[in-house]
Fold this sequence. Notes:
This protein is of the alpha+beta class. About 45% of the residues lie in helices and about 15% in strands. It has a five-stranded antiparallel sheet, with helices on one face.
Amino acid sequence: MRALATAAALALIVTHWSERDGWFxxxxxxxxxxxxxxxxxxxxxxxxxxxxAAYHDGPGRQDDEAADVHDQLLSDLADLPAVAxxxxxxxEVWRQVSYLDDELDACxxxxxxxxxxxxxxxxxxxxxxxxDEVKPYVDLDVDDPDPLLEVLLAHPLVSDAWHEDRxxxxxxxxxxxxxxxxxxxxxxxxxxxxxxxxxxxxxxEQR
Length: 207
């Protein structure tokens, strides 16, 4: 339909080019609107791909519930005292531990946290998710026990935690837990996960 409308708009512009009358103006407006609509339809999915799937509204999530769900980049929380303390425990530079067929340079942890999302919601199911940029520096195929889950579950305010999707970990927390506390906990869990992957990789290389 948009293609037909665009063609009709072009026809109006061409046939009324010399007069530059109201039909010409209508054709220009229609052309601009249709081109913008086509561009939005093409670019929309590409913009959404940069974030983990868990951060798109799921089929069971109502609009009023989605309004109460907040996700923030870990880098945006880095100045909170508890989060800053947790970040200070991490290696400054992270080495690649997965997707080893494509060799990547080591990456500063300060850059990786720009692709880690912390999500909070009223239903007490909070999550940690990673963008594609983080995946080579963690092992998302690790068998149980997963160090990331172990750290989450060791916290007294976390009653359950699981690896929900490939790039998403979810935890059930008590209402008393703050975003700062959960972000700090998630940071320590991520660090433990990476360090465990490094140890296992070193063990394989020494055999």
